[in-house]
Amino acid sequence: MEKKLAIISYSPSVMDTYQKQIVSLFSDKVLVDKYFIGSEEIRKGIEADLVLLPSYSIFLDIKPYINKSSEVIVINRTISQEALDTIMNIPEGTEGILLDESLELAVQMVSIIYGLGGRHIELTPASVENHENTKEKTVISLGELTSTLAPGTDIINLGNALLDLDTIVDIGAKLNLIHVLQRQDIRKSYKESVTRNSGLSNIIRQTNRFESELDILLQVLDDGIIGVNSKGIISIFNEGAENIIGYKRTKIVGGQAAYILPHLPFEYVLKNREPIKEKLININGYDVVVSTHPIIHSNRLYGAVAIVRKFSDIEKKQHKLREQLIGKGHRAKYSFEDISGESEEIKKCIDIAKRMAKSDSSILLTGESGTGKELFAQAIHNGSKRKNYQFVAVNCGALPESLLESELFGYEEGAFTGARKGGKPGLFELAHNGTLFLDEIGEMPLNLQMRLLRVLQEREVMRIGGDRLIKVNIRIIVATNRDLKTMVKKGEFREDLYYRLKVLPLKLPSLRTRKEDILPLINEMEKTFNTNFDLTKAAKEALLAHSWKGNIRELKNYVEYFANLGLREVDVEDLPFDEEEEFYEDTLNSEEESLVKKLLEIGEDKIQRYLFVLEELEKSYTDKRRLGRRTLYLIALEKGFFLSEQEIRTILINLEKLLMVKIYTGRSGTVITDLGRKVIKELKQKY
């Protein structure tokens, strides 16, 4: 749990220095608040687990404002090694004043400097508030001075004071974070600082060294260590061996290994003087890996030693090593709670994905670009039993074929020119026990598709230039915005791989099919970009009527656009739709073609009437007008095109179902969508 620490000081820069020290040692375990002495914030009350104060007199002044449950430390300060070197280089006998935040602190700092060996100069303590009238030619300050001194004054800036070693240890003790300090060398972390407390410094240095040596020893003793003499009598049986094998040391030491531990190959190793490495055996129901080595010195056999490890423990260590190899960046950051939306389409999608997460079968995520396929992939991983292992993502369309192959399968040393010394594990290996996410799977070359199919079938990979198969236990999630079924028909994607991947298919909805989520998503994205703007009614309607070909990604770009412009109110004129239209093709995608086909089925012999309504709505959109049923009826009547208001109502309802128009309540009228404008061109070509 995060601890809260409050720093009280006269100077913001001093508080910043202390904060950097504390954060560098305690990382995210401590949250730091800063209070400037004399500020109103202090009078409002200080809520913290620990309060750091510059002096006892300050404590008396602000004691009424400190929570009674808070711990308090009066800071012991020191200076940096560089500052001490500066002082030691000042000529002997120099007289000067030392300026600090207060006279009390200045007296304390003079004492510190003298204690560190700076007794060759004469220092007079003074407060920064009362130094303007000084006549000394040498002024030593802690940090930059905010006011000027008399001409000719030699100013020596030692930089801000630092927290002394004993205060750092005190903070750790008060906040119950000593264990955090024990994991690092405090002296090494603060080699730039000096301390008067040499005794504490030596103790910490010795303790750090002892802790380091003990850590190494414990790593060895984590494994079971069993030793026998040349006659096979057990002489060593550590605690690790007790835990793995289940026998007590007191009952086993001194016994004959061949009878007590017949599964261990001591007899063979002693007789043949040859090691047996990494042998998998079963002891008391556990799979155990044993390596047994003879102990020979000057050609004399002294005995043998066996290192015993549970196979499950080895798996865990391999997982940790993979984490180090692949880096912290390959973690799934998002869960299902991060997927926003209240529409039925997205709710249904999330519900299906949650059920899929419980399975180990391959998942095929489809949907337009920007619909959140990787977000869903990460959420599925974090909702699965593999959540504590790696989530490895690779974009199959972002890498050339040769590089993609080496990234996926890895390579052995010398496999090709430029291959890394020692080789490199592939992403299949690094994702062992976890999830491998292959984005843009439709871009994968055919020969790599064959290799991927083999991995899915056999769950084993071979590195480039290698001669051994490596078993992998992975869950595959793939994603694409392409029509794989059409690609299969054209011979661009392997049919067998398609059906191997499409065990659990999930199609993500486009933003235009869940328009009720648009405005809530905008509000949420405002928080992400730390902005706040209001949409006019017309802007909201235009946003809802937009086709959103870029989906969530496009919406996010718009919100970022508004944030960067610093707009407080966004109207239709501020929407960058017109500038973007030229980037989009007028051709229909597969989903839009399906909607046009439905329109032709619904309209049948009345398709010209649908085209008339769409054209009039397009004209009104260009003129930034809204048309209702009554207005459309009058326009049709004027042009000699007979349509009843009821027919127009039916046409508009059908067009809205097909996402070609958006009907607004009341007298707000109807607006044509981007798809509707594209459909006009499509219908004109056919009729």
UniProtKB/TrEMBL annotation:
Residues 210-254 form the PAS domain. InterPro entries: AAA+_ATPase, AAA_lid_NorR, P-loop_NTPase, PAS, PAS-like_dom_sf, Sigma_54_int, Sigma_54_int_dom_ATP-bd_1, Sigma_54_int_dom_ATP-bd_2. SMART domains: AAA, PAS. Residues 339-564 form the Sigma-54 factor interaction domain. Pfam families: AAA_lid_14 (PF25601), PAS_9 (PF13426), Sigma54_activat (PF00158). This is Sigma 54-interacting transcriptional regulator. The keyword Heme does not apply. Keywords: ATP-binding, Nucleotide-binding. The keyword Secreted does not apply. Gene3D superfamilies: 1.10.8.60, P-loop containing nucleotide triphosphate hydrolases, PAS domain, Winged helix-like DNA-binding domain superfamily/Winged helix DNA-binding domain.
